[in-house]
From TrEMBL:
<dbReference type="GO" id="GO:0009254">
    <property type="term" value="P:peptidoglycan turnover"/>
</dbReference>
<dbReference type="GO" id="GO:0019867">
    <property type="term" value="C:outer membrane"/>
</dbReference>
<dbReference type="GO" id="GO:0009253">
    <property type="term" value="P:peptidoglycan catabolic process"/>
</dbReference>
<dbReference type="GO" id="GO:0071555">
    <property type="term" value="P:cell wall organization"/>
</dbReference>
<dbReference type="InterPro" id="IPR051206">
    <property type="entry name" value="NAMLAA_amidase_2"/>
</dbReference>
<keyword id="KW-0961">Cell wall biogenesis/degradation</keyword>
<dbReference type="InterPro" id="IPR002502">
    <property type="entry name" value="Amidase_domain"/>
</dbReference>
<comment type="similarity">
    <text>Belongs to the N-acetylmuramoyl-L-alanine amidase 2 family.</text>
</comment>
<keyword id="KW-0378">Hydrolase</keyword>
<protein>
    <recommendedName>
        <fullName>N-acetylmuramoyl-L-alanine amidase</fullName>
        <ecNumber>3.5.1.28</ecNumber>
    </recommendedName>
</protein>
<dbReference type="Pfam" id="PF01510">
    <property type="entry name" value="Amidase_2"/>
</dbReference>
<dbReference type="InterPro" id="IPR002477">
    <property type="entry name" value="Peptidoglycan-bd-like"/>
</dbReference>
<dbReference type="Pfam" id="PF01471">
    <property type="entry name" value="PG_binding_1"/>
</dbReference>
<dbReference type="InterPro" id="IPR036505">
    <property type="entry name" value="Amidase/PGRP_sf"/>
</dbReference>
<dbReference type="InterPro" id="IPR036365">
    <property type="entry name" value="PGBD-like_sf"/>
</dbReference>
<feature type="domain" description="N-acetylmuramoyl-L-alanine amidase">
    <location>
        <begin position="39"/>
        <end position="187"/>
    </location>
</feature>
<dbReference type="GO" id="GO:0008745">
    <property type="term" value="F:N-acetylmuramoyl-L-alanine amidase activity"/>
</dbReference>
Length: 285
């Protein structure tokens, strides 16, 4: 290792100081913080984006109440963006309401977990969509659909945000994915498969699902332990006890709402197992 003499080191440092001062004087790298100045000429390579996840929600109330809950102190919640029931159009482009700057922490995820990370408010951007969610009836839950205009705006936003922050498909999530014990949004009518075809969000390959079904009836009973292990590896917080308890069933419902919305019974069946294993193969190897 070469040794640098004190006079030479002093000369180098003096040169660096002179160069920094010149750059600061030019204003190229200067940030004025009032009573001190930041020189940003040298940046570290040892960093990454704070934003790792994009989370989709529905508001469960109408436009007026959605805006109030997400902006007023008594609402107790916030999101970075709110998509109205009928997005306005400005210059031929749909308009989303930006409620919290992306650099700031919005209160949209609450108690949450995904892929070994907790408290996703710290590392995510939240998109709320005005949608009534569901109502309970004699035949169960009635879910309210999204409009094509809302979904088109979601797609444009998700593509942009994922590109800017390098968010991987498996980290574009439902609120129910990260908080399955207490949340249902954005529900089974949110078109995850259609969005995945546009490169937005994760989706298992059909070939892998067929492989893991291995000729079984999709409705056949499967191993709860295998499903629990696969879903935990994929990112869900789920018990590892081999039992179809209430906590596990809620996670299965959340998973099925995302990847098999035609049947969200929470059953531990062969198709659910195959979907989970196919996702692990695609995104967790």
């Amino acid at each position: 290792m070469k040794r640098i003499t004190i006079p030479l080191l002093a000369l180098i440092l003096a040169g660096c100081t002179h160069e920094k001062n010149a750059l600061i004087e030019q204003g190229n790298y200067k940030i004025d913080r009032g009573n001190y100045t930041v020189d940003t000429r040298i940046t570290s390579a040892n960093a990454n984006e704070r934003i790792r996840f994009l989370v989709m929600h529905y508001t469960a109330v109408d436009d007026k109440e959605s805006l109030r809950l997400l902006t007023q102190p008594d609402g107790g919640a916030s999101a970075h963006y709110l998509i109205p029931s009928v997005p306005a159009v400005d210059g031929g482009k749909p308009v989303v309401l930006g409620l919290v700057p992306e650099r700031r922490r919005a209160w949209h995820a609450g108690v949450s977990h995904w892929a070994q990370r907790d408290n996703l408010n710290d590392t995510s951007i939240g998109i709320e969509i005005v949608n009534l969610g569901f109502t309970e009836g004699l035949t169960g839950k009635h879910w309210y659909p999204y409009t094509p205009e809302q979904i088109e705006l979601v797609a444009r936003m998700a593509q942009d945000i994922a590109t800017r922050y390098g968010i991987s498909p498996d980290n574009i999530l439902a609120h129910s994915d990260i908080a399955p014990q207490r949340k249902h949004d954005p529900g089974p009518l949110f078109p995850w498969e259609m969005l995945a075809k546009r490169g937005i969000g994760a989706w298992p390959s059909k070939e892998a699902v067929v492989k893991y079904l291995a000729g079984r009836d999709p409705a056949a009973t499967a191993s709860v332990k295998v499903i629990q292990t696969a879903l935990a590896k994929y990112g869900y917080q789920i018990p590892q006890n081999g039992e179809l308890d209430e906590e596990t069933r809620k996670v299965l419902i959340a998973f099925q709402m995302h990847f098999r919305p035609s049947d969200i019974s929470g059953s531990a069946d062969a198709q659910t197992e195959a979907l989970a294993l196919a996702l692990v193969e695609k995104y967790r190897q």
